[in-house]
Write a structure and sequence with these properties.
The protein is mainly beta. It folds into two domains: 94 residues, no CATH class; 302 residues, Methylamine Dehydrogenase, Chain H (7 Propeller). It is 12% helix and 38% strand.
């Protein structure tokens, strides 16, 4: 039975878990029906606990033993109602019965560009580092989504500092920094936008004005210092004026379109992708009117985007395994299959130094892919340690891409030679 505290935890997990693709369903172990799970000493605890918060079938996707350890730590940080003495048996049950599903083998393509990888372990286990941020001062930040913390690493010294946020279970997700050095975040679980002053550790919160506005997701500042953000599960986008704290929310024209990644182009126009459908949209910064562009393939599901110096919108088609390009002036779309195939699940991406850089989040190991628009050629590298889901990327002032690796509990940087 769920107590009052457990019900609070359950509510938080219900907001979080629909977006956790790491717990996606799979045909693996499909011989089990909803009521026929593998026998074992933790079977009943597993059914009662996992089915209490989300679709229990998500475990069928499976993980490596190391992956299950990370997921268990995530659930522990969220206070999942399992007695401490039972976690060991529960972990054994999960590892034994739900091994990692088959994933496409990473296709590595040689090319002219040389890179090095720098990786840093996040100190707090089970953090699920979600978004990275290459700050203006040269530091790298990450959002510790499940431990209610933001973290900072100095790439020159490796010095790491974590900041605990104001409200418990705020669920930090997207990150951005303003000209004064404040770090802004979406409070994914608490329905708020937050601002951390790293000099004092003080956090200011801006609750979203509509109770239906669940799941504030990704954010970015425009050239005038206005903050734009997506609200995925509520099918909304929003604008926050830091000078006044005023927030304006608008609903996406397409129902259940799931506004996801958002970027600002050189003209100050916010552009976002709709992960629930095959559309990309722009927002008029003055009227907040939304204009949608429909992608040619009905099965396309753009999840992240990057904007090139010519204004072209590059997008990661997560569902089909494609890299795409949209010309906002003409609506023309061009696509290229990602090297590791249709199930490679392209995800976090940036545009830097004349090329698109993105992650294949389902390839084994995960890859960083470079695409040169001039030659239309790919080059790719395996992420040290396997990668395991780069959900977003950012770009250092010197042009080096940075990433957060959720299941590996790491942040990293691609040093372009």
């Amino acid at each position: 039975r769920w107590g009052i505290h457990d019900m609070t935890v359950r509510a938080k997990l219900l907001v979080l878990l629909p977006a956790m693709v790491v717990l996606g369903t799979s045909a693996a172990n499909a011989q089990y029906t909803a009521k026929e799970w593998p026998e074992g000493p933790s079977k009943q605890r597993f059914v009662d606990t996992c089915n209490g918060c989300h679709d229990i079938n998500r475990v069928r996707g499976g993980y490596t033993p190391e992956g299950w350890l990370t997921v268990v730590r995530m659930m522990q940080t969220m206070d999942a109602p399992v007695p401490a003495e039972e976690w060991g048996a529960m972990t054994d049950y999960l590892m034994k019965n739900f091994p990692e599903r088959k994933r496409p083998v990473a296709v590595l393509i040689d090319g002219p560009v040389k890179v090095d990888f720098k990786m840093w372990d996040v100190p707090t286990q089970g953090s699920r580092p979600h978004d990275p941020l290459a700050a203006r001062d040269g530091s790298v930040w990450w959002s510790g989504q499940l431990v209610n913390k933001l973290g900072r690493v100095d790439p020159k010294t490796g010095a790491i500092q974590e900041y605990t946020l104001k409200s418990a279970f705020s669920g930090p997700h997207g990150l951005g920094d303003d000209k004064d050095g404040n770090i802004w975040f979406t409070g994914n679980l608490a329905g708020l936008i937050g601002k951390l002053d790293p000099r004092t550790g003080i956090v200011t919160e801006y609750p979203l004005p509509d109770p239906k506005a669940k799941d504030p997701h990704t954010l970015n500042f425009d050239q005038k210092g206005i903050l734009w953000f997506t609200v995925q599960q509520a099918n909304m986008v929003g604008r926050l004026d830091p000078a006044t704290g005023a927030i304006k929310l608008v609903t996406s024209p397409t129902p259940k379109s799931r506004p996801y990644g958002i970027q600002i182009n050189a003209k100050g126009v916010p552009v976002f992708v709709e992960f629930g459908t095959n559309k990309i949209a722009t927002i008029d910064p003055d009227t907040i009117a939304i204009k949608e562009f429909t992608l040619p393939d009905a099965g396309a599901r753009p999840r992240r985007l990057a904007i090139g110096p010519d204004g072209a919108v590059w997008y990661a088609d997560f569902a089909r395994g494609y890299l795409g390009k949209l010309d906002l002036a003409t609506g023309v779309v061009k696509e290229w299959p990602s090297p590791s195939g249709p199930k490679s699940e392209p995800y976090g991406m940036v545009f830097s130094k004349g090329a698109v850089w993105y992650n294949e989040s389902n390839a084994k190991p995960n890859t960083i892919v470079r695409f040169d628009p001039a030659t239309e050629k790919f080059q790719s590298w395996a992420i040290p340690g396997g990668g395991d889901i780069v959900r977003n990327m950012s770009v250092m002032p010197n042009g080096n891409p940075v990433m957060a690796n959720s299941l590996a509990n790491q942040v990293g940087m691609v040093e372009i030679k």
